[in-house]
Amino acid sequence: MANHIVLFEPLMPANTGNIARTCAGTNTELHLIEPLGFSTDDKYLKRAGLDYWDKVKITYHKNLQAFMKTLGRNDDLYLVSKFAEHAYTQVDYSHEDRNNYFIFGKETTGLPEPFMRQNSEKCIRIPQNDTHIRALNLSNTAAIVIYEALRQQDFPELEKSHIYENDKLK
Predict the structure, then answer these.
(1) Which of 53, 106, 110, 149 sits between 20 and 30 A of 79, alpha carbons compared?
(2) Is the per-residue pLDDT at 48 higher than 90?
(3) What is the model's pTM?
C-alpha cells in the first residue's frame, strides 16, 4: 500500500514546495499534472521544499488523461473538493492491498467540472465555513487528508515517538 498526492496543474510554487515537504516527511509520492504554473527551478518552490527535494519521489504527467492511464486495478482515486458530498473522514483508506491517490485541483479553479461529475462517487471534502473563505489553502488541505489516511494506517514506517532525556531530544 502506498499513498500518493496528485496536484492538477498547480499554480503556486510555495504550495507545491510545502506539499513536497509533507511528502518527504510522510513517505508519500507526489504526482504533478502539467502544465505547471511555474518552473520547477523556481526559487520559491525550492525554498518551500527546503532541502527535501531529493527525498521525494515525483512523477510528472503531461495531462490528466495521461495520469489516469497510470492507475491500476488496486488503485483508489479520491478527488478532493469542497463540493463533495462525503467528508474525508468517512472513507476507509486502510486497505493493505490498495494504493490511495488523492488528487487536488488547481488553486484558482479546482478540478475540471466534467471530470468531477464523471467521478462524483470518488469525491471527498474537508468541512469548512465557506461563508468566510472560498477555500482552504492547498498545502494545508493536502496535509490534512494525507495524515488522516496515515492515521487510519497506523502511520506506517513513520516515527511515532521520541525519547526525551532532561528535556532534550535523545
Answers:
(1) 53
(2) no
(3) 0.89
* 145 is an annotated ligand-binding site residue: no
The Cα–Cα gap between 148 and 28 comes to 13
Residue 126 marked ligand-binding:
yes
Phi, psi of 98 (to 5 degrees): -130, 150
What was the pLDDT predicted at 46? Answer: 63
25 is in an annotated binding site: no
| 145 φ, ψ (degrees, to nearest 5) | -70, -45
Answer yes or no: are the C-beta atoms of 86 and 124 closer than 8 Å.
Answer: yes
Return the domain boundaries, the chain: 3-169
pLDDT surpassing 80 at residue 153: yes
Residues 6+ apart with CB under 8 A from 4: 28, 29, 30, 31, 99, 100, 101, 102
Which CATH fold would you assign to the domain 3-169? Answer: Alpha/beta knot (3.40.1280)
Determine the pLDDT at residue 38: 81
Bond prior to 35 in cis (omega within 30° of 0): yes
- Which grid cell sits at 20? 513536497
Distances (CA, A) of 30 to 62, 65, 166, 170: 14, 17, 38, 31
Grid coordinates of 128: 469548512
